[in-house]
Design goal:
- This is Caprin-2.
- It comes from Mizuhopecten yessoensis.
- About 45% of the residues lie in helices and about 25% in strands.
- The chain is of the alpha+beta class.
- Among the domains are: about 30-95; about 180-310, Jelly Rolls (Sandwich), CATH 2.60.120.40.
- The strands form 4 sheets. The protein has a 5-stranded antiparallel sheet, with no helix packed on it. Strands 6-7-12-9-10 form a 5-stranded antiparallel sheet, with no helix packed on it. Strands 1-2 form a two-stranded antiparallel sheet.
- The longest helix has about 100 residues, at about 30-120.
- The protein starts with a helix and ends with a strand.
Length: about 300
Amino acid sequence: MSVNFVLFLCFFYGYDRSYGEVLDPDNQPRQWQDLVTFVNQKIGSMEHLMNIKNERLDQLESKLRAQETEISSLKELMLQKDTILSNLVKQVTDLKKGEIMNTISDTSIEHLARASSSTSVNSTSDVTDTPDGARVDTDAHTAGDRMGEYNTRRQQDALSDVTIPKQYNRVAPPTPKQTVAFHAYRTSSITLGTQATVIFDHEDLDHGDGYSPADGLYTVPESGTYVITWTMFAYHHNAYQNVLVVNGATRGMSWTDSDEIGDYHQTTGITVLTLKQGDHLFIRMGQIYHGKIFSDSTYSRPTFSGWKLD
């Protein structure tokens, strides 16, 4: 409060000296208003300067925090590099120790061999007479035998450290057997009578070579369980029955009827049979009321299909 009052007096004094006026008692309200305006302008200028300084301080603090973060990252990177360097130094030290141990081992072996040789030459030898009069130095033979045993043992130790890979017989996987199946369809429309065989003249698939597009007969290539299916497409105002015949016997039937409407009707028959190799089957016409079979590449085609399950 005292600071504001002092500032107010200073501004008042400066205002009075700058304008060279003496407060007029008759005109004090206007002069006080001008004084307040002048003081407010000065205060506003000071606040603006303070805001600018605060913004600069905030920017400096942000830069300082960024530098501190960067310094922390550099410290972590230095620690990682120190760890890597320590590991490398340890590995180099281990390698040097291994080389020194190998050198000592080889030197010891050489010294042992030399000592054995000198012992066999310089020591007093026992002489044994052979039947043919030859003289044999038994000590020399003993030293040589010891060296031979040592070398043999060392070779065995070296071989024991070698792992011999197992040998496996590589056999190619068996080729999967192809499923017996067939699929045929009729390429054109036809009108047939009762008991006539429906010939599906286009063979699309025949694994097992069992279907004949010439006469519509399928000969079973392998014994087993089969799924047999057929689809018929009746022309409008036509109705007829189709029969699946196996070895002369009826084993399935279907009825396609578009007699009372001016539209096409399609019917699919399906059956599961146990068949033997050499069995014959085909589709023939049964009861008929106008037996025109319709076939068209745009709408549908009559089909005859089958496949072996096992």
